[in-house]
Specification:
Distance between the termini: 100 Å
Structural class: mainly alpha
Shape: rod-shaped
Strand order of the largest sheet: 1-2
Strand content: 5-15%
Length: 99
């Protein structure tokens, strides 16, 4: 069996096991362990992620989907449709009229 990994609670300065630190700050144990393995210490070890935060890759995909949606909406807008009636504009402004 492995010895528990010890760290310092950034608020109290107390030496504490990682799993106990996770419980204390209501974080998943795996999150605290992975942060510790990544070299994070102190407040970085126990910081709660902001709700709704996403990775850069996810944010980029969402932006691409939004751009594609805007393009599709623009294609269906009345201004994007061919203006066939322009050919008849000459008749409206006194152009040559045919009987």
């Amino acid at each position: 069996m492995h010895d528990p990994i010890m760290t310092t609670d950034p608020h109290t300065g107390e030496q504490i096991e990682l799993n106990r630190l996770a419980q204390r700050y209501q974080l998943p144990k795996g999150t605290v362990y992975s942060r510790h393995l990544a070299g994070k210490r102190g407040m970085d070890l126990i910081a709660h992620q902001k709700r709704g935060s996403v990775s850069d890759a996810v944010r980029e995909r969402q932006e691409q989907e939004a751009r594609a949606s805007y393009i599709e909406q623009a294609k269906r807008s009345p201004l994007a449709r061919p203006l066939n009636h322009i050919a008849d504009a000459g008749k409206m402004i006194g152009g040559e009229q045919h009987a």
